[in-house]
Amino acid sequence: MEKFEVNILGCGSALPTTRHFSSSQVVNIREKLFMIDCGEGAQLQLRRSKLKFTRLNHIFISHLHGDHCFGLMGLISTFGLLGRTATLHIYAHEELERLLQPQLEFFCKGMTYEVKFHHIDPTKAEMIYEDRSVSVTTIPLRHRIPSCGFLFQEKKTPNHIIRDMIDFYQIPVFELNRIKNGADYVCPDGTIVPNGRLTTPSASPRSYAYCSDTVYQRNILSQIKGVDLLFHEATFMHEDAARAKETFHTTTLQAAEIARDAEVKQLVIGHFSARYENEALLLEETQSLFPNTLLAKENLRITL
Amino acid sequence: MEKFEVNILGCGSALPTTRHFSSSQVVNIREKLFMIDCGEGAQLQLRRSKLKFTRLNHIFISHLHGDHCFGLMGLISTFGLLGRTATLHIYAHEELERLLQPQLEFFCKGMTYEVKFHHIDPTKAEMIYEDRSVSVTTIPLRHRIPSCGFLFQEKKTPNHIIRDMIDFYQIPVFELNRIKNGADYVCPDGTIVPNGRLTTPSASPRSYAYCSDTVYQRNILSQIKGVDLLFHEATFMHEDAARAKETFHTTTLQAAEIARDAEVKQLVIGHFSARYENEALLLEETQSLFPNTLLAKENLRITL
Questions:
Q1: How many Cβ atoms from other residues are within 10 Å of residue A265's Cβ?
Q2: Inter-chain CB proximity B18 and A64 less than 8 Å
Q3: Residue B233 and residue B113 share a domain
Q4: For chain B, which end, N or C, has fewer CB atoms within 10 Å of the first or last residue's CB respectively?
Q5: Are A275 and A218 part of one and the same domain?
Q6: What is the interface pTM, i.e. ipTM, of the complex?
Q7: A226: left (phi over 0), alpha (psi -120 to 50) or beta
Q8: How many domains does chain B have?
Q9: Residues A44-56: what's their mean pLDDT?
């Protein structure tokens, strides 16, 4: 199966701890790398992950809190030092471009590549990226400032042809692409061979939903329905639900409820408050409602 | 003896490696903390060092390359989240204030403390900070952009009084402070008791010189003469002297020569190029000319 992996670079929250880097992940889809959020230290963690810097062309920023974007300048600057030439695309709330521009002009003078900002509107579910194998759609969230998640959806790949059947019907080579993409075959005598006899279906497209900082919000359910993997913040234990609501964050049990009700296949929780030394408790509480849950940690790689 | 320590938070150079954080140090003088440079990840390393965040009120930035200042926003922002109230003083080339201002306004809105910038002129040796126990003076360096080092000089502390002599001459208590500070004592009958009979000298004041990114420059010798500890960059092995000159950096042997000719007591080298996997070779080469040399590394604490 083609590669579809999520690499956790950092999963702490606003306050630095010795346990965690701040938020950053890299989604690897067929060796194309997509970074989600870029907290301080993301470039260091990217180096540790052994992922190839040159494969990273797209960065998605969920919202403009420092722990989700303070690593950008370092990363951009390092790409410059490494002689990068490919354009780097940054998808973020429009404010970010204004904030980074003075520093880009000063620190990255004469850089060998371009940084292109794409302004996103975090209040709408919109497809903001698409290539032939994947699309990325924003998931509107509700936080203290505009915030959104990102839904990565693989596109359906062509069916696999059954070699023996192709030989049996003596189907010419130039027909094969059409057949892989679902066409039936019409024999010279007019007989129609249905596609289902000639191919086996390809793996069903996979999907990953990243839900960044947000208060507990059930109206994301329809958008993330049935995803293979859901990252959801779980900043607090459920006993701190009042604090979660007040700061527009989510608790373990709320994240589990979202995962259960959206019928996702697997949940990974992160963005842990610095107050919890023993994060196993966060995991246990989430698993009490949604057993197939992972605890994010630095350098964790999840294969979809 | 009063505390005078240098804590290395990061000692890598521009390109991130898995071995090093970028440049940052904390000088601890009698539990007052002075940060020098603030590369990405400095706040994380500060947390690891267990030094008290609240004791840090002064940050000195040697020059405006990203690996020496990209950690500032994260640190400033974290101080805000922690409810800091004391003003934070940043000493840097004036450009820095202009570059950070838009981000400070956006990310640190409503922050509980003030960030005060002090513009320094890196081309002059000037005292830029002074309190009753220490002064900090800039050391002009020569790099691709304006750059300076910092000389931390402890002030002489009062002499120690010899209790027996004070009793012998029946010197009243109100005279003691003057005597500690070097005054002779005049007896009621007019006899003068020289200070040297009444006190033993306090420890001699210590000094630390931090020489940041610079090409090999002998005209710093007079300013750093005889310091207890010299940090000098040694980005390159001496075989790469041409590359060092071209990029305005220093080699191991050049740093050793500076240390030897300035007759410093101890040298610590850092800012290692990412190209050297085995940094023991950098140390060996430096020690061949100046034996009392240390290799900087993360979390190293040097007591003066």
A1: 14
A2: no
A3: yes
A4: N
A5: yes
A6: 0.89
A7: left
A8: 2
A9: 95
Judge if A49 and A187 occupy the same domain.
no
Write the pLDDT tens digit of every residue in A185-208: 999 999 999 999 999 998 889 999
User: Are B118 and B90 within 8 A, CB to CB?
Assistant: yes
- Percentage of chain A exceeding pLDDT 90: 93
Give the closest-approach CA distance of B267 to chain A in angstroms. Answer: 28
Q: Please give the positions of A annotated as active site.
A: 67
Confidence band, pLDDT 50/70/90 cuts, at residue A276: very high
Classified as helix, coil or strand, B89 is: strand
B40 contacts chain A (CB < 8 A): yes
In this structure, the answer to whether residues A194 and A207 fall within a common structural domain is no
Q: Mean pLDDT across chain B, nearest whole number? A: 95
CB contact under 8 A, B66 and A77: yes
The side-by-side arrangement of strands in the sheet containing A293-295 is A127-130, A134-140, A148-154, A207-211, A229-233, A266-270, A293-295
Span A158-191, pLDDT tens digits: 899 999 999 999 999 999 999 999 999 999 999 9
* Chain A: closest CA distance from residue B216 (Å): 23
Domain check: are A270 and A142 in the same one?
A: yes
Angstroms from A156 CA to nearest CA on chain B: 38
Give the whole-angstrom CA distance, residue A117 versus residue A128: 12
Same domain? For B170 and B228 the reply is no
Average pLDDT, integer, range B46-75: 96
Are residues B125 and B185 part of one domain? no
pLDDT at B17 over 90: no
Cβ pair B66:A43 closer than 8 A: no
> What are the strands of the beta sheet with A4-10, ordered from one edge?
A115-119, A88-92, A56-60, A32-38, A24-29, A4-10, A301-303
CA gap B134, A192 in Å, rounded:
92
Q: CB contact, 8 Å: B103 with chain A?
A: yes
A189 & A46 share domain: no
Q: What is the CATH number of the domain that holds A124?
A: 3.60.15.10
Which residue among B168, B200, B232 closes a domain?
Answer: B200
pLDDT at position B16 is: 80
- Residue B169 near chain A (CB below 8 Å): no
Q: Which residues contact A184 (CB under 8 A, 6 or more apart)?
A: A192, A193, A194, A195, A198
Range of the domain at B179: 160-200
Which residue, A145, A171, A200, sits at the end of a domain? A200
